[in-house]
Amino acid sequence: MKQSDDENFDDINRRDSDRRGGLKPAWAIIRLDNNVEVPCWIINESRSGIGLETRKQMKPFPLDRGGTYWMQIKPSNAKISSWVAGTIKHIREKGAGSGIYRVGVKITTVPPTSLGNIPNI
């Protein structure tokens, strides 16, 4: 295929995706020990981790940098959600005093035994 054919194919896929409402929203729910849930949108996906943004204002923020938590995630390219363990790499407040946070998470391949079993299973 020529370069122009590739560009046309991408344009057709983009228009088809727009017609169907774009990409499906990606979300994550971080589950804490005390049955507190932190609902988030996934704003960035990579092989080793995800970037999250909280859905609601929380003060003080319940997560700790370096902590490992169970998360139920549903990436944009998946049809169903799955449980993974993730370690918090960074926490940044979006705007001073907003109470909305961006969180960087590294997905852990082998969950630590101290984390216990997957919640509700």
Structure characterization notes:
- With 121 residues, this protein is mainly β.
- The chain has a single domain, classed as Thrombin, subunit H (Beta Barrel), CATH 2.40.10.
- The protein contains 1 helix and 6 strands; from the N terminus they run αββββββ.
- Strands 1-2-3-6-5-4 form a 6-stranded antiparallel barrel.
- The longest helix is centred in the first third of the chain and has 17 residues, at 3-19.
- The termini are far apart.
- The relative contact order is 0.18.
- Mean pLDDT is 77; it is low at 1-10 and 15-20.
| Major sheet details | 6 strands, antiparallel, barrel
The number of distinct β-strands equals 6
What order do the helices and strands follow?
HEEEEEE
Provide the number of structural domains.
Answer: 1
The class by helix and strand makeup works out as mainly beta
Q: Write down the overall geometry.
A: globular
Helix content: 10-25%
User: Which CATH architecture is right?
Assistant: Beta Barrel
Mean pLDDT: 77
Question: How far apart, in Å, are the first and last alpha carbons?
Answer: 49 Å
Give a summary of the structure in a few sentences.
By secondary structure, the chain is mainly beta.
What is the strand and helix layout of this fold?
Layout: H1 3-19, E1 27-31, E2 37-45, E3 49-54, E4 68-74, E5 82-93, E6 101-108
Quick tags:
disordered N terminus, six-stranded antiparallel β-barrel, mainly beta, 1 helix, 121 residues, Thrombin, subunit H
